[in-house]
Design brief:
This protein is an alpha/beta fold. It folds into 2 domains: 136 residues, HAD superfamily/HAD-like (Rossmann fold, 3-Layer(aba) Sandwich), CATH 3.40.50; 77 residues, DNA polymerase, domain 1, CATH 1.10.150.240. It is built from 9 helices and 6 strands. A 6-stranded parallel β-sheet has the order 3-2-1-4-5-6, sandwiched between helices. Strand 2, helix 6 and strand 3 form a beta-alpha-beta unit. It is globular and about 55 Å long. It starts with a strand and ends in a 10-residue tail after the last strand.
Protein backbone atom coordinates (compact mmCIF):
# COMPACT_ATOMS: atom_id res chain seq x y z
CA UNK A 1 0.00 0.00 0.00
CA UNK A 2 1.08 3.56 -0.64
CA UNK A 3 0.05 4.68 2.86
CA UNK A 4 2.24 7.35 4.44
CA UNK A 5 0.03 8.76 7.23
CA UNK A 6 -2.09 7.01 9.87
CA UNK A 7 -4.86 8.82 11.75
CA UNK A 8 -5.93 6.98 14.92
CA UNK A 9 -8.94 7.50 17.16
CA UNK A 10 -8.29 7.42 20.91
CA UNK A 11 -11.35 6.50 23.03
CA UNK A 12 -11.91 2.73 22.85
CA UNK A 13 -9.24 2.46 20.18
CA UNK A 14 -5.98 3.25 22.00
CA UNK A 15 -7.35 4.06 25.46
CA UNK A 16 -10.20 2.38 27.28
CA UNK A 17 -13.16 4.71 27.86
CA UNK A 18 -15.34 2.59 30.15
CA UNK A 19 -12.92 1.82 32.99
CA UNK A 20 -11.54 5.39 33.35
CA UNK A 21 -15.12 6.66 33.22
CA UNK A 22 -15.96 4.44 36.17
CA UNK A 23 -12.91 5.72 38.04
CA UNK A 24 -13.75 9.36 37.29
CA UNK A 25 -17.40 8.95 38.30
CA UNK A 26 -16.42 7.28 41.57
CA UNK A 27 -13.96 10.08 42.38
CA UNK A 28 -16.52 12.81 41.70
CA UNK A 29 -19.17 11.00 43.75
CA UNK A 30 -16.74 10.84 46.67
CA UNK A 31 -15.93 14.55 46.38
CA UNK A 32 -19.60 15.53 46.06
CA UNK A 33 -20.97 13.23 48.75
CA UNK A 34 -23.07 11.17 46.33
CA UNK A 35 -23.43 7.42 46.77
CA UNK A 36 -21.61 5.59 43.97
CA UNK A 37 -23.19 2.46 42.47
CA UNK A 38 -22.50 0.12 39.55
CA UNK A 39 -25.90 1.12 38.14
CA UNK A 40 -24.65 4.70 37.82
CA UNK A 41 -21.88 3.59 35.47
CA UNK A 42 -24.26 1.41 33.47
CA UNK A 43 -26.70 4.27 32.94
CA UNK A 44 -23.86 6.71 32.19
CA UNK A 45 -22.47 4.53 29.38
CA UNK A 46 -25.93 4.03 27.92
CA UNK A 47 -26.89 7.71 28.02
CA UNK A 48 -23.47 8.93 26.87
CA UNK A 49 -23.48 6.57 23.87
CA UNK A 50 -26.99 7.66 22.92
CA UNK A 51 -26.08 11.34 23.07
CA UNK A 52 -22.80 10.99 21.16
CA UNK A 53 -24.64 9.21 18.32
CA UNK A 54 -26.96 12.22 18.15
CA UNK A 55 -23.94 14.52 17.99
CA UNK A 56 -22.46 12.52 15.10
CA UNK A 57 -25.76 12.84 13.23
CA UNK A 58 -25.86 16.60 13.83
CA UNK A 59 -29.01 16.43 15.97
CA UNK A 60 -27.39 17.96 19.07
CA UNK A 61 -24.06 19.59 19.94
CA UNK A 62 -21.27 18.62 22.35
CA UNK A 63 -22.41 21.50 24.55
CA UNK A 64 -25.82 19.81 24.80
CA UNK A 65 -24.12 16.65 26.07
CA UNK A 66 -22.23 18.51 28.77
CA UNK A 67 -25.41 20.33 29.86
CA UNK A 68 -27.86 17.43 29.77
CA UNK A 69 -25.99 14.14 30.19
CA UNK A 70 -25.85 13.92 33.97
CA UNK A 71 -29.24 15.58 34.34
CA UNK A 72 -30.70 12.64 32.40
CA UNK A 73 -28.65 10.13 34.38
CA UNK A 74 -29.68 11.57 37.73
CA UNK A 75 -33.33 11.66 36.62
CA UNK A 76 -33.20 7.96 35.76
CA UNK A 77 -31.53 7.11 39.06
CA UNK A 78 -33.72 9.35 41.20
CA UNK A 79 -30.75 11.37 42.45
CA UNK A 80 -31.13 15.03 43.39
CA UNK A 81 -27.86 16.65 42.30
CA UNK A 82 -26.51 19.31 39.96
CA UNK A 83 -25.98 17.41 36.70
CA UNK A 84 -24.16 20.20 34.89
CA UNK A 85 -21.66 20.61 37.74
CA UNK A 86 -21.17 16.86 37.97
CA UNK A 87 -20.42 16.65 34.25
CA UNK A 88 -17.81 19.40 34.49
CA UNK A 89 -16.07 17.65 37.38
CA UNK A 90 -16.30 14.30 35.60
CA UNK A 91 -14.62 15.72 32.47
CA UNK A 92 -11.86 17.26 34.56
CA UNK A 93 -11.12 13.87 36.15
CA UNK A 94 -11.29 12.09 32.78
CA UNK A 95 -8.66 14.39 31.28
CA UNK A 96 -6.04 12.65 33.38
CA UNK A 97 -7.40 9.08 33.38
CA UNK A 98 -5.75 6.64 31.00
CA UNK A 99 -5.96 2.87 30.63
CA UNK A 100 -4.35 1.43 27.50
CA UNK A 101 -6.21 -1.00 25.24
CA UNK A 102 -4.28 -4.29 24.90
CA UNK A 103 -1.63 -3.91 22.22
CA UNK A 104 -1.87 -0.12 21.93
CA UNK A 105 1.73 0.67 22.81
CA UNK A 106 3.17 -2.18 20.75
CA UNK A 107 1.10 -1.11 17.75
CA UNK A 108 2.21 2.53 18.05
CA UNK A 109 5.85 1.47 18.34
CA UNK A 110 5.45 -0.58 15.16
CA UNK A 111 3.53 2.06 13.17
CA UNK A 112 5.74 4.97 14.21
CA UNK A 113 8.69 3.22 12.60
CA UNK A 114 6.94 3.14 9.23
CA UNK A 115 4.39 5.99 9.08
CA UNK A 116 3.63 9.48 10.33
CA UNK A 117 1.02 9.17 13.09
CA UNK A 118 -1.77 11.56 14.07
CA UNK A 119 -4.47 11.24 16.73
CA UNK A 120 -8.00 12.08 15.61
CA UNK A 121 -10.77 12.49 18.18
CA UNK A 122 -14.14 14.13 18.78
CA UNK A 123 -13.06 14.73 22.39
CA UNK A 124 -11.95 18.13 23.62
CA UNK A 125 -8.35 18.97 22.78
CA UNK A 126 -7.47 19.07 26.48
CA UNK A 127 -8.80 15.57 27.04
CA UNK A 128 -7.19 14.20 23.87
CA UNK A 129 -3.72 15.48 24.72
CA UNK A 130 -4.12 14.96 28.47
CA UNK A 131 -5.13 11.30 28.30
CA UNK A 132 -2.46 10.39 25.74
CA UNK A 133 0.09 12.19 27.91
CA UNK A 134 -1.09 10.41 31.05
CA UNK A 135 -0.64 7.10 29.25
CA UNK A 136 2.77 8.10 27.94
CA UNK A 137 1.63 7.62 24.35
CA UNK A 138 1.71 11.21 23.10
CA UNK A 139 5.32 10.96 21.92
CA UNK A 140 4.37 8.58 19.11
CA UNK A 141 2.30 11.25 17.35
CA UNK A 142 3.38 14.02 15.02
CA UNK A 143 0.25 16.06 15.84
CA UNK A 144 -3.15 15.80 17.52
CA UNK A 145 -6.46 16.64 15.81
CA UNK A 146 -9.54 17.18 17.95
CA UNK A 147 -12.99 18.39 16.95
CA UNK A 148 -12.34 21.40 19.17
CA UNK A 149 -9.17 22.33 17.30
CA UNK A 150 -10.66 21.73 13.83
CA UNK A 151 -14.05 23.22 14.74
CA UNK A 152 -15.90 20.29 13.16
CA UNK A 153 -16.90 16.80 14.29
CA UNK A 154 -16.33 13.40 12.75
CA UNK A 155 -17.94 12.06 10.54
CA UNK A 156 -18.11 15.39 8.66
CA UNK A 157 -15.64 15.13 5.78
CA UNK A 158 -14.23 18.51 6.81
CA UNK A 159 -12.78 16.97 9.97
CA UNK A 160 -10.30 14.87 8.06
CA UNK A 161 -10.14 17.36 5.21
CA UNK A 162 -8.82 20.04 7.54
CA UNK A 163 -6.58 17.58 9.38
CA UNK A 164 -5.05 16.37 6.11
CA UNK A 165 -4.38 19.93 4.99
CA UNK A 166 -2.57 20.77 8.23
CA UNK A 167 -0.71 17.44 8.24
CA UNK A 168 0.39 17.84 4.63
CA UNK A 169 -0.86 14.50 3.32
CA UNK A 170 -3.44 13.54 0.70
CA UNK A 171 -6.48 11.39 1.44
CA UNK A 172 -5.15 8.73 -0.95
CA UNK A 173 -1.98 8.22 1.09
CA UNK A 174 -3.74 8.17 4.47
CA UNK A 175 -5.75 5.69 6.55
CA UNK A 176 -8.08 6.07 9.55
CA UNK A 177 -8.15 3.53 12.38
CA UNK A 178 -11.06 3.63 14.85
CA UNK A 179 -13.79 1.81 16.74
CA UNK A 180 -16.78 3.82 15.49
CA UNK A 181 -18.50 2.87 12.24
CA UNK A 182 -20.02 6.34 12.11
CA UNK A 183 -17.39 8.77 13.39
CA UNK A 184 -14.23 7.00 12.21
CA UNK A 185 -15.14 4.74 9.30
CA UNK A 186 -17.85 6.86 7.70
CA UNK A 187 -15.79 9.97 8.51
CA UNK A 188 -12.72 8.59 6.78
CA UNK A 189 -14.74 7.39 3.80
CA UNK A 190 -16.39 10.81 3.49
CA UNK A 191 -12.91 12.32 3.15
CA UNK A 192 -11.77 9.75 0.58
CA UNK A 193 -9.38 7.94 2.95
CA UNK A 194 -8.89 4.26 3.52
CA UNK A 195 -10.25 2.91 6.77
CA UNK A 196 -9.59 0.19 9.33
CA UNK A 197 -12.37 -0.72 11.76
CA UNK A 198 -11.31 -1.86 15.23
CA UNK A 199 -14.15 -3.97 16.64
CA UNK A 200 -13.37 -3.07 20.24
CA UNK A 201 -16.81 -3.95 21.58
CA UNK A 202 -17.07 -7.22 19.68
CA UNK A 203 -20.45 -6.23 18.26
CA UNK A 204 -19.77 -6.77 14.56
CA UNK A 205 -18.97 -10.08 12.85
CA UNK A 206 -17.68 -8.13 9.88
CA UNK A 207 -17.64 -4.58 8.62
CA UNK A 208 -18.22 -4.21 4.90
CA UNK A 209 -18.07 -0.43 5.15
CA UNK A 210 -14.38 -0.37 6.08
CA UNK A 211 -11.47 -1.39 3.89
CA UNK A 212 -10.16 -3.53 6.74
CA UNK A 213 -11.59 -4.86 10.00
CA UNK A 214 -9.78 -6.27 13.04
CA UNK A 215 -10.76 -7.57 16.46
CA UNK A 216 -7.42 -6.81 18.12
CA UNK A 217 -5.02 -3.91 17.62
CA UNK A 218 -2.05 -6.13 16.85
CA UNK A 219 -3.88 -7.57 13.83
CA UNK A 220 -3.24 -4.19 12.21
CA UNK A 221 0.46 -5.15 11.93
CA UNK A 222 -0.64 -7.66 9.28
CA UNK A 223 -2.31 -4.89 7.28
CA UNK A 224 0.11 -1.95 7.51
Amino acid sequence: MDIRAVFIDVDNTLLDFDLPSRQAIELVCKDEGIEFTDKMVEVFLEVSDMLWKKVEKGIITKADIYRDRWKLIFQRLGINADGERFDLLYRQKMNLCAVEIDGARELLEYLSGKYTLFSASNASHERLVGRLGAAGLDGFFNDHFSSQRLDVLKPDKEFFGRALKIAGFSAQESIVIGDSLTADIAGGKNAGMRTCYFDFAGKEDACQMADFAVKSLLEIKNIL
